[in-house]
Automatic annotation (TrEMBL):
InterPro entries: NAD(P)-bd_dom_sf (IPR036291), Sc_DH/Rdtase_CS (IPR020904), SDR_fam (IPR002347). The lineage of its organism: Bacteria, Pseudomonadati, Bacteroidota, Flavobacteriia, Flavobacteriales. CDD domains: SDR_c. It comes from the Bacteria. This is NAD(P)-dependent dehydrogenase, short-chain alcohol dehydrogenase family. Belongs to the short-chain dehydrogenases/reductases (SDR) family.
């Protein structure tokens, strides 16, 4: 078992990628503390995973007391903390015209500031066991789309934080900090969001080649599988690294032959 006896804190762990990570961690021998915003969903997940291997805490991670509460939950329930997965995210559209101050403050609070504060609160315990942090970013961190301006900025900030802390914390505290940047993932919320935007119920079965050469997008379970390496001792001394989980290169991509023509017609 790759995570035997480890205790992992996962924010945004009630649904989607976070839930998949929690389930995979338990399968690999870990105990988990999951966080989210809907109490009933958290209770159901703990029941599914088993009360002896999972605990939950329903709280908004941007609340000032939240980081300490999350860490204390892990320590009081399981006696230690080996890893933090900063997975919780606020995803919403905005561009140069529509981005307003309250909106971008909330975006940065959830996606950039809260993860930093959680690492800060967890650091003494992670240092004691030479633990690790895994930040869940996005390929949009590299620039993003025109209508994901604020979100892309927040994930770019998270990526810079990973690079910075991955160096300083490993040197000073023995704590590894790494990040994965998933591409388009088929979560429950993504299915619902696209339906609300007017797309057909099974939109994910007909993804254009430009977005998915594999004719499909990622599943949460595939992202969770990739997380195991970074959370396990197999990762060794690797720190301060960012890995993109995408179907195509971010630079030097070979666009379909008919893409340019169809683009000009629009």
């Amino acid at each position: 078992m790759r995570l035997k006896d480890k205790v992992v804190l996962i924010t945004g762990g009630y649904t989607g990628i976070g839930k998949a990570i929690a389930k995979r961690c338990v399968q690999e021998g870990a105990k988990v503390v999951v966080n989210g915003l809907e109490e009933e969903i958290g209770l159901a997940l703990v029941k599914e995973l088993g009360a002896d291997t999972a605990a939950h805490i329903t709280t908004d991670i941007t609340e000032e007391v939240a980081p300490q509460l999350l860490v204390e939950k892990a320590i009081s329930k399981f006696g230690k903390l080996n890893a933090v997965v900063n997975n919780a995210a606020y995803i919403a559209s905005s561009n140069i015209t529509s981005t307003e101050v309250p909106f971008i403050k909330r975006m940065l609070a959830v996606n950039s500031i809260a993860p930093l504060m959680i690492i800060q609160a967890a650091l003494p315990h992670l240092s004691a066991v030479r633990g690790c942090v895994l930040n869940i970013g996005s390929i949009n961190a590299w620039g993003g789309e025109p209508d994901l301006l604020a979100y892309s900025m927040s994930k770019g900030a998270l990526m810079t934080m990973t690079r910075n802390l991955g160096d300083s914390l490993f040197r000073e505290n023995g704590v590894r900090v790494n990040q994965i940047n998933p591409g388009w993932v088929l979560t429950e919320k993504e299915i619902l969001n696209k339906k609300e935007q007017g797309m057909k119920a099974d939109w994910y079965k007909d993804i254009p080649d430009i977005f998915a050469p594999a004719q499909r997008i990622f599943t949460p379970e595939e992202i969770a599988a990739a997380c195991l390496y970074w959370l396990s001792d197999e990762c060794g001394p690797v720190s301060s690294q960012v890995m993109d989980l995408e179907q195509f290169p971010m630079i030097g991509r070979n666009l379909p032959k008919n893409w340019e023509g169809s683009h000009k017609k629009k």
